[in-house]
Amino acid sequence: MSKSKIAIGLSVFGLLAVVFGTVLAFVGPAVVKDQIIKNVELNPQNKLSYTMWKDIPVPFFMSIYFFNVLNPEEILAGEKPTVEQRGPYVYREKRWKDNITFHDNKTVSYREYRQYFFEESMSIGNESDVVTIPNLLVLGTSVMVDILPISLKKMISFFFNTFKEGPFVTKTVGELMWGYNSKLVDFLNSIFPGLMPIKGKFGLFVEMNNSNTGLFTVFTGKDDIKVVHKVDSWNGLKKVNYWKSEQCNMINGTAGQMWPPFMTKESNLPFYSPDTCRSMELVYKRPGTSQGIPVYRYVAPKTLFANGSDYPPNEGFCPCRQSGLLDVSTCRHNSPVFLSYPHFYNADPALLQTVNGLSPNERDHGLFIDIHPDTGIPMNVSVKMQLNLLIKQVPGIAQTGKIAEVVMPLIWFRESGYIDGPMEQWLCNLALREAIKTQIMTQLKKKHILQKIQIEITNLCRCKPMIIGQ
């Protein structure tokens, strides 16, 4: 083969490659974007994404850590509490949506249910382990009735003693999690109707297993993908009434599982959480990869649980204590319960001075969500929260002894999950296409590549008469 034919062949091939690459670079993104919109919209015809949204087939786990109380007698005498962390006790979490109803205004309503199954192989210990924690029935109720006349409080103390309920309870992990029989619960309900939210068994998570998170109505994204998954209402409400300001009562963002696609580094991650009774917002921290797929990592800002003095917009969540605590008593039957990050991470350092045995750090106690920005789908989730109880001496209730007022950690939990299977493969394909597009655009922008293309095209034109003559 003559050198001229080789030259013309290479030139033609190079020209075609440039044309194809240019077309792919500018037309490809539109095709990918159209595919994302088509698959992210909440539509039963989108088998892959709709099935994932409906039944959440990805591995999801809840890990529980108990703060075992080491010095209950000393606490009653007014000394500082000392605790040790026990766990994790890991539960596989099954979630699915039911009562799914599509509406004419491009929204869909549903209830999401959840079940928990103990995973001993992933746990340190088992549900038969025995731990000691403050007795919510006694110490929690004592704070709730502190405003009552002393005579009534003495009567309540008498009944605590009658039913052999002390200030601390020593039970198995399974009993504390999913409930144990308590005649005191029914008795208190008979005297103070509505005081206790449950009947019969009492446990920290007794209301969560086989339950749902309320009736969500979210936008499907039809005709406007920017609002897909955003909450239109929760239990028929456009806003809640737990807090003291309109801003704090707003229901913002999504239901906390997926977000609208095409996120940027300026995008935040708002969502409404029924478990915390409020909307929250995570902020962008850094880019990264998860299983080879590009992601943006979002974390909770320090202002999320800041008090009104440190962050005025949070004044509506008050009355406030130290920064780092969220008082959820208004949505938890007025029980003196507070949420925080584990080990009081990112909280006022003064909280650490009230309890021995805590050691907060970002790696173990900071929460994050890794999002695939083009689709708004979480790739890796690690949400962590701590449940705390305000305990103190209450005049008239002997069981409270001389307890110094302190926000006492009970447990902390981590909900974690990650994408795998068909959805992961689909996201990998999108990531590959994006990488190809980026590479092509990078090459096209290089000056020496453009010069080479110009030379090849010029040579091709010069060679044409000679080739035709032959």
How would you characterize this protein structure?
The chain has 470 residues and is an alpha+beta fold. It folds into two domains: 1-57 and 423-470, no CATH class; 59-419, no CATH class. Helix content is 30%, strand content 28%. It contains ten helices and 17 strands. It has helices at 3-40, 47-55, 72-76, 136-144, 150-162, 173-178, 183-191, 362-365, 422-445, 447-469, and strands at residues 60-69, 83-102, 107-118, 130-134, 168-172, 180-181, 201-202, 211-219, 231-234, 269-273, 278-290, 293-299, 326-327, 337-340, 368-372, 377-391, 406-418. Strands 1, 2, 3, 8, 9, 10, 11, 12, 13, 14, 15, 16 and 17 form a 13-stranded antiparallel sheet that branches. A two-stranded antiparallel sheet has the order 4-5. The longest helix has 38 residues, at 3-40. The protein is globular and about 70 Å long. The protein starts with a helix and ends with a helix. Residues 12-20, 22-28 and 456-470 have low confidence and may be disordered.
Sum this structure up briefly.
The protein is an alpha+beta fold and 470 residues long. Helices cover 30% and strands 28% of the residues. The chain has two domains: 1-57 and 423-470, no CATH class; 59-419, no CATH class.
